[in-house]
Fold these 2 entries.
Entry 1:
Amino acid sequence: MAAKGSAVWQPELQRTWSSTACNGGVTSIALSSKGKVAVSTKSSVYLFDPPPSLVLTKEISGPEAGITATAFSNKGTDVVSGGSDGFVKWWQVETGEEVCATQFPQAEGNSELAVQEVACSNAGFVAAVSGRYLCVFGAGGEHLHTLGAEGDHTKLQQLHWLTSSSVSACSGSEVTVWSVSQEQYQETGVFAANPSANITCLAASPDGRFIAAACENSMVQVWDTEQQESTMDPMLKISEGIEGKVERLSWDCTSKLLAAAVGNDVLVWDISAVKDGKVESYVCMGYDQGARVSCLAFQATGSLLASAADNGQCLVHDVNSFGSHGVVNGLISHVASTNVSSAESGDAVKALAWHPTGILLVGTDTGSVVALQMVKAPQQQQQRSSQGNGPAAAAQVQQQPQQQPQQQLQQQ
């Protein structure tokens, strides 16, 4: 047992870089396959080199009507943007120059002009949503297909590529999935919320198998696209513990854990442990009273879950601790925290992204972008009131943090 005054090591979130170059509130942070970073506002896209330098290399100015969506192409050579003027544009990352532009095809019955969302697949397809329709584009901005959900639906939203050739979007209380190729497309499934309720948030698992939807009735429903036939009921319906609107949903890299931002808490469910329609759940704690969690992000290849709130708080939880003996009633404490807000500005976090280097990128509604790094910091250990070799002492020793190299923590 450590003697009085000895140092123990505990994680902390350390600010390593920040920028105020953005001319408005941050709406999204995207990462390319080459490690480049694109930070979007309503009027511009800012391109940064990968960490640790994060040098601002280009600023892409959008149309006067504004930028509504951005995504990196599959090879990371282009940024694709959607605008309020109805155009989808391709911009070269290295030069910042516009490569090509195409106007979203005006389909019958579609009064919407703005392109609300864009998403790029690993096969090189680009999907864009405007109003009730979804368009798929190929190389050079070639328009390949116009897709629409059947029936009298509201506009499509929550666009996701499940696989390199399978795309989904929701409308009202239904999620529609299409299979896409260069020559044709086919509707492969329609998954309806039951009980019926409008879908407000959607997340597809990294392996493309599961679709999770948050509904207006404070329920999260999950479908298994591999084992369920179209229009079948969801495999899982979760309402316990959900008190209010679900702001965000996020899957971990194993496609087993699903996280939801609900009010002051982050709820996590182990989808791999469903039994009799029930699922093991956890509550990630640590936010100040009155704060509302606004963003979630799992590491793409690690065990850390980052979340942030409208008061600037950022917390990190380690999913490896969820099954430990220290967990009581499913309540999980964070392993590190910080606040990116200044007392004067009161920044609300609007975007989070884990870079493959282990850096957590944070964007706020005041236009600031911050890089945070998990490091091990020494803390003074308190002398324990009870000592000995009994079970209680052994448990105390077991729960002490282990010293780890800084680089190892960054790569979790």
Note: Helices lie at 391-398, 406-410.
Entry 2:
Amino acid sequence: MNNSKYDLTAAIGPDAGSPLCKLLKELTVGNLLEHLGKVTKTSDGALRPLLEIALLDTDDTIQEALGTLAQYHVLSAPIVYPCLEQCRERQNATNNQHHQQTKTHQIGFVDVEIILKALLDLLSNAQYFDILTHIHSRSSDTGLPIRIQVTEQAASALKRLAEPFFSTRLMSLGQSQGAFATDTVLYCKMDTCIQTIIDEGFLFHHLADDGSERVNHRIAITDEQGTIISILSQSDIIAYIYQHREKALGDLRHLTVEKLGMCATPVFCIQSSVPAIEAFRQMNEENVSAMAVVNDQRVLIANISVSDLREVSPMSFEYLALPILDFLMYQNTHKEKVVANYTGDSLLPISCLASTTLEHIMERLTTNKVHRVYEVDDHDRAVGVITITDVLVCLLKLCSSNIE
């Protein structure tokens, strides 16, 4: 296995990962989907979907797409081609009819990052960031604090761009941003082992249009006819292994972040006073999906990620001009369900120390339904970030240590 960043063989012994390796080779796609309650077996042995699958249509607008992603609490969804009305008919049909009608028309995945790129392209073409610089340079004493002057004028400039952005159709978005991600559509037999799905699906490295290297976080599982059976995510794999951690990992689950060298993903930090739209611009520039929000002492106080874009609507579009903390508090207040990224009423994200164990990292990811855990030092300063992909890669290294 060449996917791993870590060399743990000497530390854990040549056979320590054997139970995990056995689990990943014996667990099939069908069994995992059944265990997760996503499918059930019919009398003839076929698998029938139990959960409604979020689908996007090429004729959907960005506003409709964001609404769908927010409704299903996902960051990406398959995009299909026929029309939206047929998609809705499928969703209202019986499970068997849904199974028959969803086939052959899927053309890839749309995720929030594609929508973010479309937003930044629109702002760039409208010279928004140039306007923002101009606003900063000419703000003067008009009886209001400069911060309020700048925010109000920047929000006004954003508001004028809301309608053209939210009315953009996904098909034209796909044409401007490049082809939709087709390598997240994986045909496999239901008896395919999870080890294969991880290697050939989740950790299959591909180049994005911007030249950056990406992995797949969600995969559409289809049958031979192209019918979407279910969606499988990296989070599903982590959750399953966590539920079976004693058998699969044994004492390995007590190894620490420091011992495993898990915090290999660099953390990108941003000051809390920076406008939210600038944070999204920097995410796109750095090819990351989240940033640690810190104060002047680099103390971690919040997390901003592409998922925060899902709740943005034409009515709230101008709030992207607010400082990050104000934007996040507005978003958190107006959501029907408080985002699991945050603990209680605080914006403080899930974090860990170098001494935190693998078991507790998996528990925090699974229980809080988040995609990352920030590592902090003894002074709560952000020093690293552990993503779901980092954990999956580490688990594979533990698994493969017995064959290297």
Note: The CA atoms of residues 133 and 150 lie 10 Å apart.
